[in-house]
Amino acid sequence: MARTMVVVGNGMVGHKLVQTVRDRDAQSSWRIVVLAEEPRPAYDRVALSSYVDTWDPGTLSLPGNEFDDDDLVTLRLGDPVETVDRQNRTVATVSGFRQHYDVLVLATGSRPFVPPVPGHDLPGCFVYRTIDDLDAIRAAAGRAMASGGPGRRAGMVVGGGLLGLEAAKALRDMGLSPHVVELGPRLMPLQVDEGGGGLLRRLIEKLDVTVHTGTSTESIQRDSGRLLATLAGGTELDLDLVVFSAGVRPNDALARSCALPVGARGGVLVDDGCRTDDERIYAIGECACIGDRVYGLVAPGYAMAEVAADRILGGTASFPGADTSTKLKLLGVDVASFGDAHATDEHALEVVFNDAVSGTYKKLVVSDDARTLLGGIFVGDASEYTLLRPLVGGELPAEPAALLAPDGNASMGVDAVADAAQICSCNAVTKGAITSAITDDGCDSVPSIKSRTRAGTSCGSCVPMLGKLLSSCGVEQSKALCEHFKQSRAELFEIIQATQISTFSELIAKHGTGKGCAICKPAVASILATLGNGHILGGEQATLQDTNDHFLANMQKNGTYSVIPRIPGGEITPDKLIVLGEVAKDFGLYTKITGGQRIDMFGATVEELPYIWRRLVDAGFESGHAYGKALRTVKSCVGTTWCRYGQQDSVGLAVELELRYRGLRSPHKLKSAVSGCARECAEARGKDFGVIATENGWNLYVGGNGGTMPRHADLIVSDVDTETLIKIIDRFLMFYVRTADRLQRTAPWIEEMEGGLDHLRAVIVDDSLGICDELEAAMAKHVENYSDEWKGVLEDPEKLARFTSFVNAPGTPDPTISFTVERDQKVPVLLGVPEVASR
Amino acid sequence: MTMVAEQTWVAVCPADEVLRAYGVAALLAGAEQVAIFRTEDDEFFALSNIDPFSRAAVLSRGIVGDRGGLPVVASPIYKQAFDLRTGVCVDDPDVTVPTYPVRVLDGVVQVKSP
Fold first, then answer.
1. What's the pLDDT at B1?
2. How many domains, in total, are found in chain A?
3. Is residue A569 within 8 Å of A654, Cβ to Cβ?
4. What pLDDT score does A805 carry?
5. By CA distance, what is B50's nearest residue in A?
6. pLDDT value at position A773?
7. Are A107 and A268 in contact (CB under 8 A)?
8. A251-305, pLDDT tens digit by residue?
9. Closest-approach residue (CA) in chain A for B98
């Protein structure tokens, strides 16, 4: 009969314990009951701030957190434990549920610390710890954004540590302008020193976050529907909400209530086996005080979960001490610290590299003979972190100053890291374990290493290192476009741009193999079109195009095509509507309104297309590029012109954007929309780039799409004027067109970009790569060179000649095409064609 | 006998009307449709124009290229590749489309029913 283990708390550490016990308890000797306060199963709290990007709790779920197919684990969520009866070994929850235990594990985590500022409990004051907290902040921010009134909507974050800066980012992403108030003399006082803190502040302030250091919040008051905060120096801030992230305190109330000893500054006292004073009760994670310390990081918590699991299963593991290294990207700024970052060892020496021009600060702490690495701090550029952190306590591979020099990476490779050094400190995975997964278990990609070793599955900071280890083991990660090109689409784009190669045959002869295929030919045709190589059916280019581009129409299931003329912004005159109706009637086309506010006419045969388009072009229509991997439509609501609630002229902007970007060939289709107010009738957040009017200008969202994996676009800039907006969209589109993979929509492109949305913002808003001028110039060239593709066909007899059904009977329609009538319109039937044995 | 065989060839179009790595459709007697392809290496092939997967007459509008060195056309509907020499579907060898004899005589492309 299995014994019963009760785990109080279902955070990351509690979940790790349950997983570890289930992995190792081969005899199924333990039945596990998890009792938790939060209503949802374990999720990735470290990544909590990324919840703001999707508002989808599912993206934070930890793998296997529901234990659906495990009879030995019971989860009881949303029902916290209220009392522990140590004598009878039972716990009781708030709802009155009682559970006997043989072993009890406390994994209750921390509670946010809220300083006792007058007004701290007013409506509009929040903490930042759970998904529910973020939902509440979002609701308040949404109310603030919708409320109108003068001035920008603003939020204050109390606490300028790691979490405080993440909270500031979240507020910014919700459209508020954030203030950060830090009691200490600099941001992130625990992780960085004065030099790094100064640089961090400058970088953060550049991103529209107002920083107040060395000051405290005196009071928070209600002020005509908003909040008024007064800081120690007398500064007053008009706010819509306040978020407290001034640190956490161990959540040890349950332990205190059953008289278990706690540490001087809180935390359930445990020995190095994670056992409390009561031999049947363990405590792990942020609620535990181990070796006189309380750890607020996940890595030590995971280590404690492993130790407790081992002890409960009869082992003798003990807590090895913990790595408190951190590396994160805050608002796009790299910050990392590791080891003895503050040089507390009296013999330690510091080597500092401080480049105010490029915005990087790097410090290494080394032993007095400068041979052993003790710790370090990086701000602005933490690329050396993943290589250096595993070297702590070991011998340096080079002079410290040489390692910090701008090309210092060159002198150091993954080979310098010892096999025993941890690469993933969250999951305690060593370099040796990873290389053995690659060489012995055949892992040949970062995802396969992740699933085999769990490295890189928590904070993700070691993921670049996993790629390097793959290369150092001789595993090449293929980015090949197809069997004919070993390059990725982005690399081919660079080659074509740099060499000005203008034909596929020259490109494949010089940079590929074979004759090409249905993958590389259209991809290269698209690149050639983006770079302005004349009409897409000119010369050899005609042979590269997919049939849709070749006939400038969309092939349907029976081999006929559909025709969609451009209707910019969905705005159309009655006269033009009548033309469409007449053309459809005269050619017998099925008509349907599209989702992009246009009109689609179906059932045209190849030889009919030029006649249809002659009529359309004469009436002032042009190609709508519905057939291309190109800009489709910019949908709009009616905006200020008609709508009682409109804040800006959404139709006018949609028309301007659609005309600006029409004809732009891209890795995949591009969709856009403009809404005239926050009610968002144009559904702009479901688009690759969506614009929503605000009272002061426009908010731009990027990376949305419908389809099989629907995704809302993320805010990238807010309250910008039209000129700035267009500039940023120019950069966004050109950067995407140049660097995305074939058939990669903007959402996965951003997700797979190292540094994600923050990196994208740094590149196209803050010009961190210095390429914005070039991107804008490329777009200007596209706009200047645009001409209607259909007009180009109608004017050129050679191109027109290809629009024939049969080369030996040009006027004869395809005899296999036939139609029937359904709901008063014609629809295709497939007749007279032999069936293929279906498989 | 030679005369009889000659009569079954149908002249379709001047060879230089077919671009390299490109296809055209031709109509034969009895509403039979042939897709004629010219490869990058200047070889001509002819298959039935009907895509067996979609049952639409579209194969001439597919992209011509190679798969592992073999000349293929990819159907424009669902993208399966067919070996131009044999008509066998490379992605599903149980499916084959009929092939037609094709030749270029005096600069004119000719095909005949098999």
1. 41
2. 7
3. yes
4. 93
5. A833
6. 94
7. no
8. 999 999 999 999 988 999 999 999 999 999 999 999 999 988 898 888 889 889 9
9. A834
Interface test with A, best of B10, B41, B58 (most A CBs within 10 A): B58
Burial A270-307 (b: 16+ CB within 10 A, else e): beebbbbebeebbbbbbbbbbeeebbbbbbbbbbbbbb
**Under 8 Å between Cβ of A661 and A677:** no
Average pLDDT over residues A774-779: 95
If asked whether residues A219 and A350 sit together in one domain, one would say no
**Test the A interface: residue of B63, B78, B102, B112 with most A CBs within 10 Å:** B63
Model confidence at A682, in pLDDT bands (50, 70, 90)? very high
**Residues A341, A408 within the same domain:** yes
Kindly identify which residue of chain B lies nearest to residue A545, measuring between CA atoms.
B63
Q: Do B94 and A837 touch (CB under 8 A)?
A: yes
The pLDDT tens digits of the residues spanning A449-465 come to 877 888 877 666 677 77
Number of domains in chain B: 1
Which CATH number covers residue B27? 2.102.10.10
Instruction: Please say if the pLDDT value at position A832 is more than 60.
Output: no
Residue A149: count other Cβ atoms within 10 Å of its Cβ: 11
Q: How confident is the model at residue A406 (pLDDT cuts 50, 70, 90)?
A: low
B12–A808 CB contact, under 8 Å: yes
Residues of A in contact with B55 (CB under 8 A): 830, 833-836
Per-residue confidence band for A836, with pLDDT thresholds at 50, 70 and 90: very low
Which domain, by its residues, includes B104?
A: 2-111
Q: What is the pLDDT at residue A837? A: 40
Cross-chain residue pair B63–A521, CB shorter than 8 Å: yes
> Are residues A638 and A781 located together in one domain of the fold?
yes
Whether residues A780 and A717 fall in one domain: yes
Please report the DSSP string for A554-571 in residue order. Answer: EE-TTS-EEE-B--GGG-
Q: Is the same domain home to A140 and A224?
A: yes
**Is the CB of B76 inside 8 Å of chain A's CB atoms?**
yes
What does pLDDT average to over chain A?
A: 89
Biggest alpha carbon–alpha carbon distance for chain B: 43
Residue B96: closest CA among chain A residues belongs to which residue?
Answer: A836
Shortest CA gap B36–chain A (Å) = 10
H helix runs in A591-686, sequence order:
609-618, 650-661
Q: Which residue(s) pair with A282 in the sheet?
A: A105, A275
At residue A411 the predicted structure's pLDDT band, cuts being 50, 70 and 90, is very low
What tokens appear for A253 in the block?
A: 């109330």
Q: Do B64 and A558 touch (CB under 8 A)?
A: no
Give the pLDDT of residue A55.
Answer: 86
> Alpha-carbon distance A794 to A52, whole Å?
50
CATH of the domain at A187: 3.50.50.60
Does A214 lie in the same domain as A348?
no
Are B25 and A505 inside 8 Å of each other by CB?
A: no
Residues A469 and A499 in one domain: no
Give the mean pLDDT of A540-546: 94
ipTM for the whole complex: 0.93
Final residue in a domain of this structure, among A451, A477, A503: A477
CA atoms of A494 and A499, how far apart (whole Å):
8
Of B12, B27, B55, the CB nearest to A833: B55
Chain B nearest CA to A805, separation (Å): 7
A726-750 pLDDT per residue, tens: 999 999 999 999 999 888 999 989 8
